[in-house]
Design brief:
mainly alpha; Helix Hairpins; about 75% helix
Amino acid sequence: MTAPVDPRVIAEIWAVICERAAHPSEESYTSRLLNDKKGIDKVLEKVGEESTEFILAVKNGVNERTVEEASDLFFHLLVALRAADVDLADVMKELGNRRK
């Protein structure tokens, strides 16, 4: 049996990403991604990189690496959504609509 999913984790991560976007800090990796001179391309490069690493981890059957890379991919996808001014609530609503 799998552990229950806690949606608060996603909400907390999203809140931090939004906070870093609103109040950038040089010490913050998220702020640096969102304010890179490449613009949105920087975070999209990270999404691509993490996607590839996730695919390789799954293909190689290494559960621990798959979990780590899925986490990296999910995080960078959230940052990309924020960089694109897409609200996570809209994505969650669309996912809910697809359950019908």
